[in-house]
Amino acid sequence: MAISFSLEGKAALVTGANTGIGQAIAVALAEAGADVALAGRSEPAETLALIAATGRKAVNIKADLSSIEPVARVIAEAEAGLGKVDILVNNAGIIRRDDLLQFSEEDWDAVIDTNLKTLFFLSQAAAKGMAARGSGKIVNIASLLTFQGGIRVPSYAAAKSGVGGVTKAMANELAARGVQVNAIAPGYISTNNTAALQGDETRNRQILERIPTGRWGRPEDIAGAAVFLASPASDYVTGHVLAVDGGWLAR
Ligand code: NAP
Predict the structure, then answer these.
(1) What is the DSSP letter of 248?
(2) Which of 91, 136, 156, 241 is catalytic?
(3) What is the CATH number of the domain that holds 226?
C-alpha cells in the first residue's frame, strides 16, 4: 500500500491561524488537500487568502479561546461550514513573562486557561464526531517547555507540560475509536510569541549558541510535521510529542 500524506477530502480546524505557526500549518494542510476552518479572535484575512489560493475551502470562525465558552459553537460552525472536523490543530496560545517571585495569579490563570483548558475541551468536543465516525487526528502544539522549565515563564511551562500529559491521556482513550492524538514541540520559532526574546541581545545569543542548526526556526518548519500527524501516514503514531527544534533537545 502506498504511503499517503494526502489530506484530500478531509476537513481541518486550526486555532490561532491569523499569524505565525498556526498560519503556516493551516496553509500547509490546505496545500495537502484539506478544507480548513480557522478559529481565533483576530481577523485572519491573509490566511484566508493563502488558503483560497490553494483552491481549498476556508471558513472563518470568530472566537476568543481564553475561556471554554465558545467551544461548542466553534465545533458546530466548523461542522456546519465543512460538514465535519477530521483534523483539529490546537495551536492558539499565549505566554506571560515575569520573575517567579512576583508571578501573578492573573498571569497564571490566563495562560493555563488558553493553552491547556481550552485545548482539552475543544479536543473533547471535536473528538465526539471523530469517535462516532471512527477516525480523526488531533495535533496539539506543545513546546520545549513540555520537557524543560524555561526562565520567567512558569505558567507557560506548567501549561505546556500539561499539554504533553493530556495528549497522552486523550491518545490512550481515543486509540480504540480510530483517533490519533499527538503533539508537536516547536523549538525557538521566529513569531510574535518570541519577539521579546529575539529583541534581547543576550538571550538571543544564548539561544542561538545552543541550537545545532544555528538559526531560529520559521513557522514553515513546523508545517511538515503537522501534515504528517494529520495524514494517514501517521495512523500508527499516537500519544507522541514530536520535537521540531533544530536539534535543541539533543544538546
Ligand atoms: P503567535 O504568533 O503569537 O500566535 C499565537 C496565536 O494564538 C495567534 O493567532 C493568537 O491570536 C492566538 N491566540 C492567542 N490567544 C487567543 C485567544 N484568547 N483566542 C483566540 N486565539 C488566541 O505565536 P506562535 O509562536 O505562532 O504560537 C503558536 C503556538 O506555538 C502557541 O501555542 C505557542 O505557545 C506555540 N509555540 C511557539 C513557539 C515559538 O518559538 N514561537 C515555541 C513553542 C511553542 P492573536 O493574533 O489575536 O493574538
Answers:
(1) G
(2) 156
(3) 3.40.50.720
